[in-house]
Fold each of these.
Amino acid sequence: MERPLHEDVEPLGFLLGTWRGHGKGSYPTIDSFEYDEEITFSHVGKPFLAYSQRTTHPVKGFPMHAETGYWRGVGDGRIEIVLVHPTGIAEIQEGTVRGTTIDVVTTSVSRTSTAKEVNALERTFSLDGDVLRYEVRMGAVGLPVTPHLAAELRRVDPA
Amino acid sequence: MERPLHEDVEPLGFLLGTWRGHGKGSYPTIDSFEYDEEITFSHVGKPFLAYSQRTTHPVKGFPMHAETGYWRGVGDGRIEIVLVHPTGIAEIQEGTVRGTTIDVVTTSVSRTSTAKEVNALERTFSLDGDVLRYEVRMGAVGLPVTPHLAAELRRVDPA
């Protein structure tokens, strides 16, 4: 059953649907890499969007990264994100929604016993025309917050 | 493309597929409630299962709770779970897989600024014949770990 978008997440409504595109990653401790990506935002009428993301190798097609979580509209242009990585990382992010630009920074990163050390992630999402761009900056394995990922996606399926 | 199950999650292979059933919830601070539930476990050939769960009102059908995350097989009968709730809660759970029984306890709960105080969650999953049962015990809003949820589900769709 289709339910109306909750008013608390109306500022995030521009994200709804499925997006596909391409990204590039780098970090001082690893080789640079590229990836294809699909992101989906959906809702059930409650004050959050469900978020999931998968990346695959652009040539060989095998799965690379994935994330899943929830984006919460909490009023006053504020957003809270809770998401997890299959590498054993849980992130809490908080920040702002201004028009179609979202800026969030880590307020908490927690890890399983066997996960790598990740301390901070900053994410910027912005919709420009029909192109959704994001950047992720990461502080991990003893390094300060450093550019890590950048991607551009286009909506392939409305919500 | 179908990929073989990663050997590190073979002990969790009995969970793969989609499960549906019914559960009951209670907590000292709230009215008791019942719910219908669907849980899905899937894999992409990497050493984790993707987990998602949704509950709905058993009579009126509206969405109630949801969770999403990853279950990591890390060898020696150990499991690590990272999962998030749309209420702004991120859980790290660690524990054991013995046959078809999984016991995990919280090693970390993190919360967004507006989330309710939840400090501990203990979960037991066990497959008995074709019935998957789980119990969740929770410590929240100042209370010690207390029974919270119990449900029984049956597999409706293999992996």
Amino acid sequence: MILDKSLKEALFTCSILVQKKMSDLLILEESQDSHLLEAMRYSALSEGKRLRPFLLITCANLFGAPTISSLNAAAAIEFVHTYSLIHDDLPAMDNDDFRRGNLTSHKKFDEATAILAGDALLTYAFEILSSAKTHEDPLIRCELIKILSRSSGFRGMVSGQMIDIENKNKKITKEKIANIHRLKTGELFMASCEMGAVIGKASNEDKKHLKYFAHDLGLLFQIKDDILDYKGIKRGKTDIDEITKPKNSDNISIVHTIGIEAANQQIELLCDQSKTHLKYFGHKARILNELIDYVSLRSS
Amino acid sequence: MILDKSLKEALFTCSILVQKKMSDLLILEESQDSHLLEAMRYSALSEGKRLRPFLLITCANLFGAPTISSLNAAAAIEFVHTYSLIHDDLPAMDNDDFRRGNLTSHKKFDEATAILAGDALLTYAFEILSSAKTHEDPLIRCELIKILSRSSGFRGMVSGQMIDIENKNKKITKEKIANIHRLKTGELFMASCEMGAVIGKASNEDKKHLKYFAHDLGLLFQIKDDILDYKGIKRGKTDIDEITKPKNSDNISIVHTIGIEAANQQIELLCDQSKTHLKYFGHKARILNELIDYVSLRSS
């Protein structure tokens, strides 16, 4: 169980297991296009925190479901996350050349390949979830598909991307930013926890508390992201000359709206609030509590 | 039952029912982005033959499943088809300004909106299929999701788009073109029939014959498309001055490889062949037989 390890160990174990699972799922079959698969592997298997798989696996653990039983679902949600990054980086969207120090998909390959690799990863996530290898009970498989599709679709993540783009270079309220954050990041965080809870056959009451926790953790994560972006620490920038001017100043950022001090206060508030939701689970939720501190203190 | 009508009547009824279902499924909810939904509706509800929904519904009918029981699945496959057209038309892909006389999504809106509308329609298809409203049996829902995701993903349609782009402006064999056609069009035709068969709880033997039929119909459809494209009839071009030079001469086309005469012979051959596969179903398959002639004789 991931649950019994230290956070550092748990994150490491989880990322190794998910990496192996994703790699195994992305193997070349006959009559398949190797170029497309190469692009899918390039983005999906590149370095990442694997926070969504970690949340999913840990929440399943919380209700007694062993790690191995949630690896397929964990890979599926990471594929959806990867697709969203590939499409988000496209010239017509955020137009980013690098992601975590590596070339973005359209820079490494080309735009057409990046669009199709994203499409393919998204589609594959649902193929994986529909398979009996993911869970023996088809009703649970349908539940997982419903949660993931709803949270990542036009009422969730994609809607967040759209509103984000529509409001670029506009002055918007902090409430509107919070809504964009909830849609772009929170929805998939909530889906990760809910999918884990479904695999662990948790009660509705359990799910409710996890949902609140995941909602706050998502906001926390995104505000921290904005702060790191503001400080120029993200995207491999650490040189002091480069951090004087915020990178991506055209991006929606809570820091630009409420200032760095208020953003840091928000972080503290959300830390407390998300921990409150976990009290319901008692000591079992230790690792999730530690995760809150990890997310708020991270430096990359 | 669609099955008992004349082909013309059946196609008409089917397109009305599917249009209504798609429209009902794309209704604005609270906290949703209206711009994104507008783009989704613009492409999904624009004029179309609705061949894939027709195949799905007719095949379900063939095994006794009423039309109403397969409308959700029919809408889902049309959403996937629509998403593929939106992304295919993008500047980085085929770079088309018009589709069936209307502006393409990225021309009507912008590239970011088109990418996201495609993503959202693809994701929504799986949400619909996971719902108990689509079918009461979760095992059947999982089957439908598996068929649609596999046929439209990196082993199916998306792979076809990739190989198509990779081979643009290259001289390739007719076998390679047939493979691209099978992946780009045939896979979704086969999926339509198989999904209908699953809803109708058809036997494996039934499914096998339908698969062969759909495979040949897909090829037939695509060769006819190439012929119409070659003649300049597609995309609203009918003026004799405009049809002297083939439109989209950089596109993969069977006509450019084997010539117009051989392409017409292929059409005849595939007509006969696909009708042979339907003999197994006897008189019940009348409307599918008529569909073969309709596809091979169509002028748009």
